[in-house]
Amino acid sequence: YNWDGTTTGNKIAKSLAAKTDWVTYTDTTGEIGCDLTKNSNSGFSALPGGYRSYDGSFFFIGYIGYWWSATEYNASIAWNRGLSFVGDYLYRGSFNLSYGFSVRLVRD
Hints:
Layout: H1 11-15, H2 19-29, E1 51-52, E2 58-59, E3 64-74, E4 77-84, E5 89-96, E6 102-103
């Protein structure tokens, strides 16, 4: 998904995980939250879909999952989360809105 495509005039925008939702997830699950093979209690499952670059190229498919946060960093950048399936770590980053990441939906 393009970040702006997920936040303009549709239901996904209201349910897209915000920065605070990701913080709650990591606080609740701790380090085991990064190893989805050991963590079935969180209700979150994911595949390492990589990301689509601004030029249409794809990177890290099968190795890292990237998800948009509904939280903007500024007018052209938004926060995202990356989950490595190789090193079992979850990290926060920020990317230009022209990139394509997966989305994590949460219930309101």
